[in-house]
């Protein structure tokens, strides 16, 4: 029977499938960070259980680390306890940890792929919803809760129900300056923040296939923002080239076998999806969110929507509530919206290509008066590469702050956060109320759009001179 | 896990769609290393006017005197979207909620709730609206949720059926330890591992 990519990976991971029970599937790689793991380790300890395969688990610290100092003294007392708890737990249970002093430390979804921990065709989980990122490699990757983290630690498996399948085709080629972030925001704008609920989405079409691995990670990262269980992109020559020679990539004979096996990881021609969505890449302009969820998206040449135009009462109520929170009026042109903060970073957009795109806007220019802009590389390795290319100097000369790796202002668990009333151009993934700080407003954009907004002091259409 | 068989209790409603886990439990409360004590911070930014949580927001439904002691939450579609933080069901359960009734839930939240004995119930838009209307109309209105019969009973006695996956229902009814159950299949897991290709080891 013809199968989709998801069905192939799913079928290859079934350990047990009994009548009347959710199937038990095998987990190949488990990523761990400080915030969602302590209670799982405690649970193991309380039950006297060991980890089944600690060598398949990789830990880092990213959520509440400081981007200003690599010292534990820079952390709040509770954050420090959480970070130290991860150190102790990894030592006790034999888990490899990249702590804040290690050059490989970084955002868990940046670190995993760049070290070759993320493997095509594997099942990858982490106590973090943006685990969807790893689907860019044709892996089945999804976020789990802490009880499930403990289940994976003890058994290397999970109970899972099979999801429905959705194909999202982005046809043709995007215009110059249109990035993976614009593509995925346009998709979420089209299907809504719960349009993918219950589905595993496969992204395909020329515009997806022509993306680099970093661009594909940006797209899959935000699969969760459309509610999808996971997002996947079929591995191809771009994937194989990316995997070659990374620290944990297969080597020797195992590599040859891997490349042969990965070639099978495509959706069969006559496979049937439960739903299909089609977008034309050529129609996509730079995107940004205007509201308080990632589905509340508009093109840069658009305006803030009018709730009166919405027929559905629940949606109308959501728009009204969002407009009140973000303090914008219907009909306002997005290019007239001023900002006072800019954040370039997060597991969505903190890789080297993201920093290059932002630096291209920043080069030889200055951050607008009254705007504070920070650039937070996704990992120690990204930071090192950016500095080797002189990107740090470009940012610093333009008035951006150049920081240490971490999740930073994406979720503001650390000391990077917005104040009430702040309006931020952010390359992160969520514009929920209070996400970046109580009473603050977030507009999700691409790295180039964020850098340009920081320079102009308001959102600009980067396709035109500004 | 705490078992769930049936529950009858005072209902409270949050009449909004897409309530995300950042609202349910904001990030500043995620630094704890234990599972307890999150209830006081539930819906913090909506529930309190100040950062310290000293001034309750009188306009937020959970603070209405008529809903004090509520144990069933009625809300709109896509409840629990966003972050995978299990702190969300921990906070809801610690606050005293036993069941959440909505037209739809985000996937990760749905699973996390079941793993904590907090029952997520999917009803249709129309049924949820009827429950909200009845609860609104009558102070002290209680809703019953029966996991054995798979029914929800409204304050007026109207009964609605719901569905839940068989093994999740079984585990909830019996308060079973999911890890303990899976460890019963350790031989099958080992057999699977023995067949892994070299590049996955």
Are there runs of chain A of 5+ residues with pLDDT below 50, and where? none
CATH superfamily of chain B, by name, is: Aconitase, domain 4
Q: CATH-wise, what's the superfamily of the largest domain in chain A?
A: Aconitase, domain 3
What's the β-strand tally of chain B?
A: 7
- Summing up helix and strand content along with how strands pair, one would put the structural category of chain B as alpha/beta
Q: What composes the largest sheet of chain B?
A: 7 strands, mixed
CATH topology heading of chain B: Aconitase, domain 4
> Major β-sheet of chain A, in short?
5 strands, parallel
- Radius of gyration of chain A (Å): 21 Å
Helix tally of chain B? 8
Task: Give a short summary of the structure.
Chain A has 466 residues and is of the alpha/beta class. Chain A is built from 15 helices and 19 strands. The mean pLDDT of chain A is 97.
Provide an overview of this structure.
- The complex is a heterodimer of chains A (466) and B (201).
- Chain A is built from 15 helices and 19 strands.
- Chain A is α/β, with parallel strands linked by helices and 466 residues long.
- In chain A, strand 3, helix 2 and strand 4 form a beta-alpha-beta unit.
- In chain A, the strands form 5 sheets. Chain A has a 5-stranded parallel beta sheet with strand order 5-4-3-6-7, sandwiched between helices. A 5-stranded parallel beta sheet of chain A has the order 17-16-15-18-19.
- The radius of gyration of chain A is 21 Å and the shape is globular.
- Chain A folds into 3 domains: 155 residues, Aconitase, domain 3 (2-Layer Sandwich), CATH 3.30.499; 111 residues, 3-Layer(aba) Sandwich (Aconitase, Domain 2), CATH 3.40.1060.10; 169 residues, Aconitase, domain 3.
- The termini of chain A are far apart.
- With 201 residues, chain B is of the alpha/beta class.
- Chain B has a single domain, classed as Aconitase, domain 4 (Alpha-Beta Barrel).
- Chain B has 8 helices and 7 strands; from the N terminus they run E-H-H-E-H-E-H-E-H-E-E-E-H-H-H.
- In chain B, strands 4-3-2-1-5-6-7 form a 7-stranded mixed beta sheet.
- Chain B is globular, with a radius of gyration of 19 Å.
- The mean pLDDT of chain B is 97.
- Chains A and B meet through helix 2, helix 3, helix 5, helix 10 and helix 11 of A and helix 4, helix 6, helix 7 and helix 8 of B.
